[in-house]
TrEMBL record:
<dbReference type="InterPro" id="IPR011032">
    <property type="entry name" value="GroES-like_sf"/>
</dbReference>
<dbReference type="InterPro" id="IPR051603">
    <property type="entry name" value="Zinc-ADH_QOR/CCCR"/>
</dbReference>
<dbReference type="Pfam" id="PF08240">
    <property type="entry name" value="ADH_N"/>
</dbReference>
<dbReference type="InterPro" id="IPR036291">
    <property type="entry name" value="NAD(P)-bd_dom_sf"/>
</dbReference>
<dbReference type="Pfam" id="PF00107">
    <property type="entry name" value="ADH_zinc_N"/>
</dbReference>
<dbReference type="GO" id="GO:0016491">
    <property type="term" value="F:oxidoreductase activity"/>
</dbReference>
<dbReference type="InterPro" id="IPR020843">
    <property type="entry name" value="ER"/>
</dbReference>
<dbReference type="InterPro" id="IPR013154">
    <property type="entry name" value="ADH-like_N"/>
</dbReference>
<keyword id="KW-0521">NADP</keyword>
<dbReference type="InterPro" id="IPR013149">
    <property type="entry name" value="ADH-like_C"/>
</dbReference>
<protein>
    <submittedName>
        <fullName>NADP-dependent oxidoreductase</fullName>
    </submittedName>
</protein>
<feature type="domain" description="Enoyl reductase (ER)">
    <location>
        <begin position="12"/>
        <end position="297"/>
    </location>
</feature>
Amino acid sequence: MKTTVLIAHEYGQPEVLNLESHSLPTLASGMARIQVKAAGINPIDARRMTGEFKHAQLPQTFGTEFAGVIVELADANTTWKIGDEVLGSGGSFTHATVIDVPLENLIRKPQNIEWNIAGSLAGAAQTAMTILDEMGPAQSLLVHGGSGGVGSILIQLAIEKGMNVVATASEKNQQHLQALGATPVVYGEGLIQRLHSIHPEKFDASIDMSGNEDATQASLATVKSGGFMGSIAGRKLSSSQIRPVWVKRNINNLQHVVDGVADGRFDWSVSREYPFENAQEAYTDVLTGHTKGKSVLVFQ
Ligand SMILES: NC(=O)c1ccc[n+]([C@@H]2O[C@H](COP(=O)([O-])OP(=O)(O)OC[C@H]3O[C@@H](n4cnc5c(N)ncnc54)[C@H](OP(=O)(O)O)[C@@H]3O)[C@@H](O)[C@H]2O)c1
């Protein structure tokens, strides 16, 4: 079977991205072969493309999440069958028309969830759940960068746990934050003063999606002594008190978010859809870092 893969032979801007056709090897035991219908694009994909992160040797492939249809199973199986609609996450290979995925990474796609939503859930959902797992109990939470992929679901999960959430974003995304249930604040100069007037008490915890100095200083000034302060940005920060957080794959965490999206408890917004053939344009947009919700590649 053939697959068309998004691949880069060098680091750089989106011009380095190519679509190449490859023959797939015999499907290995424990794996399912998936015809991809939709695959979210995350900032990490664009940051690997530019070489900011060099996680893999060149040439490199991209994409950590997907939704699609099982077209082949390596072994006799009582849980899965050909034609099942699934979603999940993998390494960095899901921006391709056909992919091979370990069975333990799959969950069933609820019928009432559209492909573009199903294909963009796994990365941000599991990251947000990892943050809450590592944070531990908290009553109040400050989110720096709450309007993007991870922040949008994190706010809803935190509110589900009974937390009071204050979140930052640019001016244009303030309403989006409010609709998610957070108290919105504009990031940038004067942030600490704005936080003091909106939330005079110290926060129990903060999480930073941006990695910038304003966010670091605001956390140090507004989180109570001993409170959790984390960052998922993967950038060098000026304070060692802000703990780096890295996503952990956890199928139960993913199922929790998928169930909530399927039954309407959680809102999941896809802001931009791109045909797979337009991947260069999609990566250009994701590089700007100002999305509302998720960006998704869709496949015919
Ligand atoms: N550590 C991990 O395991 C892990 C996992 C997933 C993601 N990440 C990283 O986490 C970051 C966020 O991911 P994402 O998918 O949520 O990205 P995203 O969808 O691009 O969202 C970025 C968010 O940051 C906000 N932002 C932009 N500039 C900011 C600033 N100066 N101060 C505060 N907030 C600012 C944006 O708000 P506006 O649009 O309103 O400007 C938006 O809310 C990315 O860098 C990604 O690579 C890490």
